[in-house]
Amino acid sequence: MSAQNVLFDAPGPKARRRHAIFTVIGFALAAVTLGLVVWKLQAQGQLEPSMWTVLFTADVWTQYLIPGLINTIKAAALSIVFALAFGLLFGMGRLSHNGPIRWVSGIVVEFFRSVPVLLMMYFFFQVFAFNNYFGTDYNSLAAVVLALTLYNGSVIAELVRSGVHGLPSGQSEAGLSIGLTPGQTLRAIQLPQALTAMLPALVGQLVVILKDSALGTAITYPELLQAAKDVGTAYGNVIPAYLLAALIFILINYGLTNVAGRVERRLSRRGRGPRKGAATAAVGTTVDGSLGGPLEDAAVGETPDPAR
Amino acid sequence: MLDILDKYDVLGAFWMTIKLTVFSAIGALVIGTILAVMRVAPVAILRRLGAFYVNTVRNTPLTLILVFCSLGLLYILQVNLTDPKSPTSIVDNNIRWAIVGLAAYHAAFVCEALRSGVNTVPLGQAEAARSIGLTFTQSLREVILPQAFRGSIAPLGSVLIALTKNTTVASIIGVAEASGLMKEIIENETASFGVFFIFALGFVILTLPVGILFTSLSRRLAVKR
Question: Which of A68-90 are b and which e, b meaning 16 or more Cβ less than 10 Å from the residue's Cβ?
Answer without folding.
Answer: bbebbebbbebbbebbbebbbbb
